[in-house]
Amino acid sequence: MSENRTALVTGGARGIGVEICRQLAERGLRVLVAARQLETAEEACRTIGPGALPLALDVSSAKSVTEAVRAAAELTGGGVDVLVNNAGVSLDGELRPPYLDEGVLRTTLDVNLVGAWRVAEAVVPGMVRAGYGRVVNLTSSYGSLALMDSGRHPAYRVSKTALNAFTRMLAGELSGTGVLVNAADPGWTRSGMGGPSAPRGPEEGADTPVWLATLPDGDETTGGLFAGREPLPW
Asked: Annotated catalytic sites, by residue?
């Protein structure tokens, strides 16, 4: 399955992202390590080793996404087979509803939701033409309506709830095409966003996203939300 497959991982140069890249490369995929600055991606590729290629990509810029996908095609000589939408921000601080910081909300939505949507729009049509694709959106249990019991991290939560909805819609639209679309909650993981006190290491956090990114031919798992490789309530 992994032979000659290309994976694109946004936010792939740090934390969970770089670990996802490392595990995909270990499974034989060619991995495009995407970061806002090319130098950052290049540094990450040196730690990942063979099979990793650096890519400058800012998911908050439609122009950057278009240019990055064009550069990816030139680097690999083909399209993207696996997309892991990992890039994300959490900017809320201690603010809780009903209070609103519109700037924080707009920026969070633009990266966590619209950014993932932009990249999917750029690469999914090629997957459909090829009859194969895997899309994994990195989400959080904080975005689960069933588990939502407080207003902590409101902009972040709303963005992940919306990303979950996008996951379900995209999966439904692509049913029967060979492109599987799922959402993965890596759990509270030690990273730039999760902080040093998180109980999970990056290796454990990357496990479910990598599992979904490498679902074998014939698997029909799509439109799901998973944590620890188990279904999570929406």
From this structure: 156
Both tokens assigned to 67? 């240019």
115 CB-contact burial (10 Å; exposed 0-12 / middle 13-18 / buried 19+): buried
| pLDDT tens column, 172-222 | 999 999 999 999 999 866 566 655 676 667 789 999 999 999 999 999 999
- Classify each residue of 80-114 as buried b or exposed e, where b means 16 or more C-beta atoms within 10 Å of its C-beta: bbbbbbbbbbbbbeebeeeeeeeebbebbbbbbbb
Q: For residue 203, what are its two tokens?
A: 């290796």
Structure tokens belonging to residue 108: 């969070």
What the block records as the tokens of 161 is 């709830």
Q: Residues 78, 36, 86, 172: is their CA dihedral positive or negative? A: negative
CA 122 to chain CA centroid, nearest Å: 14
13, two tokens: 């140069």
Model pTM greater than 0.70?
Answer: yes
Identify residue 28 by its one-letter amino acid code.
Answer: G
